[in-house]
Amino acid sequence: MIIPYFLFFFWALFMVLSILKGAPFIRTSNKRIEIMLSQVENVSSHRVIDLGSGDGSIVRAFARKGANATGVELNLFLVLWSKFLSLFQGLSAQTSYLWKNMWSVSCSPYDV
Fold first, then answer.
1. If you write DSSP's letter for every residue of 34-97 in order, what string do you get?
2. H/E element holding 99?
3. Among 86, 103, 95, 30, which residue's Cα sits nearest to residue 66?
4. In the beta sheet, which residues pair with residue 49?
5. How would you class 45 by CB atoms within 10 Å of its CB: exposed for 0-12, middle for 13-18, buried for 19 or more?
6. 97, 74, 99: which is closest to 87 by C-alpha?
7. Potential cystine with 22: which of 7, 63, 74, 87 (Cβ 3.0-4.6 Å)?
8. 3-class SS at 98?
9. Tens of pLDDT, residue by residue, the chain (112 residues)
10. What is the DSSP letter of 27?
11. pTM of this structure
């Protein structure tokens, strides 16, 4: 019975920190990610950036299609979680995550 309380504590801490540091994290649905992927022709030839990447689901989706993708996130916990998921899914070579404010990142090297 202690595990649900433990998980709830981390979830609550995660939500409070995300609200204090910026916008709360709301994951993009898989349907919307598929729509984004369908809008880009020849995905593998693009460099992609996701400002406010959250858990990195968009970054990993583009990486699975062959793109080099970067996520920018202000919440350190989400950056670490994104890196872990990319490593676990074998996408760490195509993905990178920056722990920065999106207003301080240059988007000039990216085309999507």
1. HHHHHTSSSGGG-EEEEET-TTSHHHHHHHHTT-EEEEEES-HHHHHHHHHHHHHTT-TTTEEE
2. strand 95-99
3. 95
4. 70
5. exposed
6. 97
7. 74
8. strand
9. 556 777 777 777 767 766 676 677 788 899 999 999 999 888 888 899 999 998 999 999 999 999 999 999 988 888 999 999 999 999 999 999 999 988 889 999 999 8
10. P
11. 0.79
